[in-house]
Amino acid sequence: MNSKHSFWQALIVAIIIFWTGIMLGILFENSRTSKLENFYKSSETQIFDIQLTGNLLMNEANPDCNTALQDNIDFADRIYEEAKTLEKYDASNKITDDIVKLHSRYDLLRTMLWLNVIGLQEKCSNQTNIVVYLYQYVEPNIDTQAKQVAISKVTSDLKKKYGDKVLLIPLAYDTGVKSLSLLRSKYQINEFPVVIVNQKNKITGLNTVEELEKYLEL
After folding, report:
1. 2-213 has which CATH code?
2. Under a CB-based contact definition with an 8 Å cutoff, are residues 144 and 131 in contact?
């Protein structure tokens, strides 16, 4: 009887510990998702404001290209830093799919940014280089992960070297953003991971900054 009693006690304790861990994990996930939601809402407001400001500036007789461009560069830098925070959360085990959904929303913001800067590039003299890095987010294999780590480092180092002369936009191509799919089709982007410079040059293998900077317009 004692052994059976001890068995049931141990089982009950194990079940309690298991479900306590699950609930704590969900609470932790919800807490950090809430923080990222606040980041996103602020970024969403800013990108719409930048678009409206850019439209107003471009409709003037003498458009202020420098101001419009700097607004986009500042936003790109901010959302890039937020993306780093998102990547840290991605590295942990996902208990809910909220982080994945939020990633898709960030990809939409970054696609809007890309379209906005393309418009500025067409209306104004080419004062900056648009460097877009498209990568696989959903279940990349080991080889793809290795390539993406290398490319991410190269593009990050390029941005550090050239500052505002480079507008860096990392984008996951596989989170269901339809506008991004249309851009991929327009520029015939079919191989990933890939870096696109000024919508003209597509580079699929990178190991050094020097390999990439030869495509920049400086």
Report:
1. 3.40.30.10
2. no
